[in-house]
Amino acid sequence: MDIDANLIEKMVKQVLNEIDAGKAKAEKTTAPEVKNENRNSASYGIFNTMEEAIDACDAAQKQYLFCSMAERQKYVQTLRNVVLKQENLELISRLAVEETGMGNYPHKLIKNRLAAEKSPGIEDLETEALSGDDGLTLVEYCPFGVIGAITPATNPTETIICNSIGMLAAGNSIVFSPHPRAKDVTIKLITMINKALEEAGAPQNLIVTVVEPSIENTNVMMKHPKVRMLVATGGPAIVKLVMSTGKKAIGAGAGNPPVVVDETADIKKAAIDIINGCSFDNNLPCIAEKEVIAVDSITDELIRNMKENGAYQVTDPAVIQKLADLVRKEGGGPKTSFVGKSAVYILEKIGIQAGPEVRVIIMETPKDHPFVMEELMMPILPIVRTRNVDEAIDLALIAERGNRHTAMMHSKNVDKLTKMAKLLQTTIFVKNAPSYAGIGVGGEGHTTFTIAGPTGEGLTSAKSFCRKRRCVLSDAFHIR
Ligand code: NAD
Read out DSSP for 174-225? Predict the structure, then answer.
C-alpha cells in the first residue's frame, strides 16, 4: 500500500512538473494579446482611412509573428482555396473585366487560377545552415512586418492573389493600395480572403485596404512609419516613387517586349505562339509580345501564318495612321480608353468589321514607329523587317527601351539566342514559345504577376518579401 502511495505521489508530482514546464514554454511562445480596437467586425479588412487600415494590419502582424509555420501554411492554402472556388474565381474575373473595362473574362479566369495555384508558399523559404568547430549558424528568411503593396489596374486581382500568397507565406501582413479603377473588385477579393482566413483561425486584418483607394491614400501608406516595405507593380512613375521613399522597395515596372524571328525558326509555330502571347488578356500583361522584328527572308511567310491564326493585317498607310490617331494620345502613349480592348473592338472604331476569330491587328511599320516604341497594352502588333538577325537583335534592344523586362526570340541558332539574351539583359527571355511560358504556362518555374526588373528580385516569390536574419549558436550542435 505504502509503496503504491509513494509511486502515485511521485507520478502526480512529475505530471504537475510537466504541466508547469509546458505552461512556461507556452508563455514564451504565445503571442501577446493584441487588442485591435479599429476592427469593425463586419469590415473584413476594409477600412475608412489608411491610418486605421495600417494600425489594424500592424496589430495583425504582431499576432501573426507567433503563429507556427504549419499555421502559415494552412492560411496560405486557405487563400488558394477561396480563390480557386469556382464561383469566386468566376466572380472576381468577371468583376475585374466589368469594372476596369480591360482584358477578357476567359483569360482573367486563367490568370487568377494560375496566380492561386503557382505562386510559391512557405516552401520557398529555404533556411541556410552553417556548421563547424564554432557551432551552428542559421540564416532564415524572416518577415519585414507590414508591407504596403501598390497594384495595377491591368492585373488587379492576379497581383493581389500572388502578392498575398508570397507575402503571407513570408510572415508579413499587407496593406493594399489598388488602382482606383479596380477598387470594387479589390474590395470584394480582400473581403473574401479575410473572411476565409478568419474562419481558418488566422489573426484578423492580415490583408487590408481602404474603402476609397486614391493617390493620396497611397502617399499616406508610403510615408507611414509602420509600413516597412513597399512593393509597387505598375508603370514607371509609381516604381520611381517607391524607390525614393528611403524604405526597402520592390519595383515591378513597365516593359515593351520585342519578339525576334529569324530564318532558322519554325515559322508556323512562331506565328501561332506570337498571336497567342500577344492576344492573351487583350495584350494587358507586361510580358506580352508588343512588337515583332523579323528577318526579311521569312517575314512574308510569318505574316501569312499569323493571318491564318487570328491576325488581321492592315496594309494601307492611311488606315495605319487612322489607327494611331485613334488609340494614341496627342502627347504620345496609349489612350486609357483603348488599353486592354479587343482587336475586334478597335477595328470596329475605324470602320472595319471583323469576326471573333480576329485576335490581333498586325501591320508593317518603320522601325521607329510609335507602335514599336511605345507600350500600348492592346492587341496591335507592328512588324518590322530587318536584313538579318543581328540587325533584328540590335533593333530589339532599342525597342525594349532599356526596361530590361521581357523579350522573346524564335530561332534555332543557339549563338544568336545567346547573343540576344546577353544584349537585352531582360528579367525574362523566352525562346521559341509564347511570352507566358516565362511565367510558368508551358514553361518551367513558378508564376508571379510582380516581375521586379528595376530592383532586381526578378520573378518575385515569398523569399523576395523577407529579410535574411542570422541566428548563431556558439560551440554546440556541431556533431561531426
Ligand atoms: P499605373 O502606373 O497607372 O498604376 C499602377 C499603380 O500605381 C496604381 O495602383 C496607381 O493608382 C498607382 N500610381 C500610379 N501613379 C501614382 C502616383 N503618382 N502616386 C501614387 N500612386 C500612383 O499602371 P497601370 O495602368 O495600373 O498598370 C500598367 C502598367 O504596369 C504597365 O506599364 C505595365 O507594364 C506595368 N506592369 C508591370 C508589371 C510587372 O510585373 N513588372 C505587372 C503588371 C503591370
Answer: EEEE--GGGHHHHHHHHHHHHHHHHHTTPPTTSEEEESS--HHHHHHHHH-T
With 50 as the cut, is the pLDDT of residue 31 above it?
Answer: no
Q: Relative to the CA of 236, which ligand 1 atom is closest?
A: 2
Question: Among the atoms of ligand 1, which is closest to the Cα of residue 253?
Answer: 41
- The tally of CA atoms less than 13 A away on the side-chain side of residue 348 is 11
Residue among 222, 286, 428, 460 whose CB has most ligand 1 atoms within 8 A, to mutate: 286
Residue type, 13: K
* Annotated catalytic residue 57: no
Residue nearest to atom 3 of ligand 1 (CA): 235
ipTM of this complex: 0.98
How long, in residues, is the chain?
480
User: Cβ atoms within 10 A of the Cβ of 349, count?
Assistant: 14
pLDDT, one tens digit per residue, over 48-87 is 999 999 999 999 999 999 999 999 999 999 999 999 999 9
Give per-residue pLDDT as tens, 270-328: 999 999 999 999 999 999 999 999 999 999 999 999 999 999 999 999 999 999 999 99
Q: Poorest-confidence range of 2-16, 33-47, 303-317?
A: 2-16
Of 162, 286, 466, 471, the catalytic one is 286
Pocket test for ligand 1, best of 100, 157, 179 (most atoms within 8 A of CB): 179
Neighbouring residues of 172: CB distance < 8 A, sequence distance ≥ 6: 61, 64, 143, 144, 145, 146, 147, 229, 465
Say what the pTM is: 0.92
- Report whether 7 contacts 15 (CB < 8 A): no
CB atoms within 10 A of CB 398: 14
Of 27-31, 113-117, 179-183, 232-236, the poorest mean pLDDT is in: 27-31
Protein residues whose CB sits closer than 6 Å to any atom of ligand 1 = 150-155, 177-179, 215, 218, 233-235, 237-238, 241, 252-255, 286, 375, 449-451
Q: What cell numbers appear for 326 in the block?
A: 485613334
E strand spans, 234-333: 248-252, 258-261, 291-295, 311-313
Per-residue model confidence as pLDDT tens digits over 385-396: 999 999 999 999
Q: How far is the CA of 126 from the centre of ligand 1 (A)?
A: 31
Domains plus CATH for the chain? Answer: 41-253+460-472 (3.40.605.10), 258-443 (3.40.309.10)
